[in-house]
């Protein structure tokens, strides 16, 4: 049997597990996750990279999965919301979102949580943002700093104050 034109077999590492996919070369990472692997925690919001609902971690860095092709990520470690924690064993950020009521409808919540985890790693690594107090100093995690760093993740329900509180809580618990 011949392979359809434009398809390719790729191997992706997602949440620590290897997955072999035979997909169209134009398949986004988001569609590979949702439609081929049934990892539906990552949401398709705008499908234009403007809302952040599809945020995943690729090698520990935040990526809008709707803007990148799956074929570009062979050899990368991809983490989705399902890979952060599970019922009974939640990631500290997931726990904090629950405790601080960082969601209403919940549609943006997976992307918010994954983005917040990646963002705190950026802060820990000393990456400055537009509102940071210079590039030579460790970023101070003020409300403005958190809001700036999370600005790529939109919440239509306007839970931003609670999301900021949840992120600050995890940051302070980590002793940063």
From TrEMBL:
Transmembrane segments: none annotated. InterPro entries: 2Fe-2S-bd, 2Fe-2S-bd_dom_sf, 2Fe-2S_ferredoxin-like_sf, 2Fe-2S_ferredoxin-type, 2Fe2S_fd_BS, Aldehyde_Oxdr_Iron-Sulfur, Beta-grasp_dom_sf. The keyword Cytoplasm does not apply. It comes from the Bacteria. Residues 8-84 form the 2Fe-2S ferredoxin-type domain. Gene3D superfamilies: 3.10.20.30, [2Fe-2S]-binding domain. GO terms for molecular function: 2 iron, 2 sulfur cluster binding; metal ion binding; oxidoreductase activity, acting on the aldehyde or oxo group of donors. Keywords: 2Fe-2S, Iron, Iron-sulfur, Metal-binding, Oxidoreductase. The keyword Iron-sulfur applies. One of its GO terms (cellular component) is periplasmic space. This is 2Fe-2S iron-sulfur cluster-binding protein.
């Amino acid at each position: 049997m011949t392979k359809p034109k434009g398809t390719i077999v790729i191997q992706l590492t997602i949440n620590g597990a290897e997955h072999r996919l035979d997909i169209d070369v134009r398949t986004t990472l988001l569609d590979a996750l949702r439609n081929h692997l049934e990892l539906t925690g990552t949401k398709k919001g705008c499908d234009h990279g403007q809302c952040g609902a599809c945020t995943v971690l690729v090698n520990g860095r935040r990526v809008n999965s709707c803007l990148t092709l799956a074929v570009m990520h062979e050899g990368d470690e991809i983490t989705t919301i399902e890979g952060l924690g599970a019922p009974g064993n939640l990631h500290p950020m997931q726990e904090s979102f629950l405790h601080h009521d960082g969601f209403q409808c919940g549609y943006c919540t997976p992307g918010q949580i994954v983005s917040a985890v990646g963002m705190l790693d950026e802060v820990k690594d000393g990456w400055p943002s537009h509102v940071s107090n210079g590039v030579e100093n460790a970023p101070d995690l003020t409300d403005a700093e958190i809001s700036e760093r999370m600005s790529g993740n939109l919440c239509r329900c306007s839970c931003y104050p609670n999301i900021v509180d949840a992120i600050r809580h995890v940051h302070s618990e980590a002793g940063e």
